[in-house]
Amino acid sequence: FLPHLVASLEQVEETYVMIKPDGVQRGLVGEIISRFERKGFRLTGLKLFQCPTELAEEHYKDLQSKPFFPKLIKYITSGPVVCMAWEGVGVVASARKLIGSTNPLQAEPGTIRGDLAVQTGRNVVHGSDSPENGQREIALWFKEGELCQWTPAQAPWLWE
Ligand code: UDP
Ligand code: MG
Q1: pLDDT for the residue numbered 10
Q2: Could you tell me the CA-to-CA distances from 44 to 37, 53, 158 in Å, in that order?
Q3: Needs which cofactor (predicted)?
Q4: What ipTM did this prediction achieve?
Q5: 101-120: burial string, b at 16+ Cβ within 10 Å, e else
Q6: Which of 35, 42, 59, 126 is labelled catalytic?
Q7: Alpha-carbon dihedral sign for residues 127, 130, 136, 139
Q8: What H or E segment, with its residue span, contains residue 89?
Q9: What is the mean pLDDT of residues 54-80?
């Protein structure tokens, strides 16, 4: 689909980004999607979704033993989230940089959390922390027919 990228296909990663219920309730959906859209990665999945408890627990299973786990599951299931899959070379680390530190008070200005949030328990957005988790989380949150492979009109202006 992107003939000029075939040489670097092994380097192409995918990451799962999610606008959490506070981001949706606060009307930040467009603002947050814009930041990823303008950066220049490829969007391959996008939906508004009310997350069931079991899915939230599976998504955050590595944090099961943490004291904040029950509150986290309540937060993530408290209203609809926006699920996104983004693809590109270096997209996992880059998305984490755009998102900023877990604690929004420590997140740099210019990042999503640094600009738009104040508390760890209301930090508006999620991003996968490794390429492996990117794949795992996209498979968890999206069904096969919900993902779209396409060539952005801007492709030759974004990727050489
Ligand atoms: N979280 C929390 N309290 C904490 C640490 C984390 O409520 O002390 C929540 C917060 O919403 C965070 C999520 O749990 O985004 C996942 O934690 P992780 O350490 O994976 O942070 P992230 O990868 O989201 O930056
Ligand atoms: Mg994490």
Answers
A1: 77
A2: 11, 25, 16
A3: Mg(2+)
A4: 0.99
A5: eeebeebeeebbbbbbbeeb
A6: 126
A7: positive
A8: strand 81-89
A9: 98
Going from the C-alpha of 103 to that of each of 12, 25, 114, 115, 125, the distances in angstroms are: 29, 20, 9, 12, 12
Token pair belonging to 127? 């991003």
Q: What is the pTM of this model?
A: 0.96
Active site residue 126: yes
Q: How far apart are CA 137 and CA 154, in angstroms?
A: 27
22 CA distance to ligand 1 centroid (A)?
14
Q: Two tokens at 115?
A: 């600009």
Mean pLDDT, all residues of the chain: 95
Tell me the angle at which helices 29-39 and 91-99 cross, rounded to the nearest 10 degrees: 140
Please list, in sequence order, all residues whose beta carbon lies within 8 angstroms of the beta carbon of residue 149, skipping any fewer than 6 positions away. Answer: 1, 44
List all residues whose CB is within 6 A of at least one atom of ligand 1.
63, 68, 72, 102, 120-121, 123, 126, 129
Greatest pairwise CA separation for the chain in angstroms: 48
How do residues 85-138 score in pLDDT, each as one tens digit? 999 999 999 999 999 999 999 999 999 999 999 999 999 999 999 999 999 999
